[in-house]
Amino acid sequence: MKLAIFDLDYTITKNGTWGRFVWQVIKDRPWLWIPFLTAAIRAQIRYKKGLIPRVQVKETMIKWCMVGKPRAEMLAHAKRFAEREVPTRLRPGALRALRAHKAAGDEIIIISAAADIIVKEIAERLDVQYFLASDMGWDNEDRLKIEFASPNCYGEEKCVRYEAFLKEHPELAKNITETVMYSDSHSDVPLMRKCDQGVAVHPSKKLRALADQYNFTIVDWNS
């Protein structure tokens, strides 16, 4: 059995999911736009300077427009987001690859740094059973916390989560004879190197150079 691993943002989707999801949540509250954008930009600058971890940028955004919201409300937002995303905003090449793997009887998993509630809804609409993502945190009253419940599922953390996934699904792991990973990002090179085949999807200059170094296949899924 082949296991096909897909990144989500910019690999399956044409654009990143988090910022657009946050906009869906905040767009009807214009009084928050300026303070929210100011805080988000400051956090992004601090991250770029190496002063804060990547996940803190997301947590800053949660603090300004989502913290304390009931789980049911956030799940409804995620559902509405996926309902718009899947029909028209996915890369044609990604859909062809997904269909080909399904036709071949391969197992598929999406591993993404995106929020779990978003990834879950998109995965379900793509008929993908397995996914790993950054898990949002909920308090005892089922309201959203600022802090994520898991580490940010990014870079090396994807390898950690993937290894844990295989241990949690021993029968699946036992039957895997080949693995392939598709990604647009150089941050996924650690996991791509663990696979039998890495596929760089419309890669950036940095990923293209690494693709040549590690003998990854290069494809363009824009059309």
Describe this protein with a few key phrases.
223 residues; alpha/beta; Rossmann fold; six-stranded parallel beta sheet; two-stranded antiparallel ribbon; 50% helix; 18% strand
**Rounded radius of gyration (Å):** 18 Å
Strand order of the largest sheet: 3-2-1-6-7-8
Count the DSSP helices.
10
Strand composition percent: 15-25%
Mean pLDDT: 96
Main beta sheet strand tally, sense and closure? 6 strands, parallel
For the terminal residues, how far apart are their CA atoms? 28 Å
Q: How many DSSP E strands?
A: 8
Would you tell me which CATH topology applies?
Rossmann fold
CA-based shape: globular
Outline the low-pLDDT stretches. none
Give me the CATH superfamily: HAD superfamily/HAD-like
**CATH class value:** Alpha Beta
CATH architecture: 3-Layer(aba) Sandwich
SSE class: alpha/beta
Task: Estimate nothing, just give the exact number of structural domains.
Answer: 1
What would your notes on this structure say?
The protein has 10 helices and 8 strands. The protein has 223 residues and is an alpha/beta fold. The protein has one domain: HAD superfamily/HAD-like (Rossmann fold), CATH 3.40.50. It has a 6-stranded parallel sheet, with helices on both faces. Helix 9 (189-194) links the parallel strand 6 and strand 7. Helix 1 (18-26) packs parallel to helix 3 and helix 2 (33-48) packs antiparallel against helix 3 (55-65). The longest helix is centred in the middle third of the chain and has 18 residues, at 71-88. The protein is globular and about 50 Å long. The two termini are 28 Å apart. The mean pLDDT is 96.
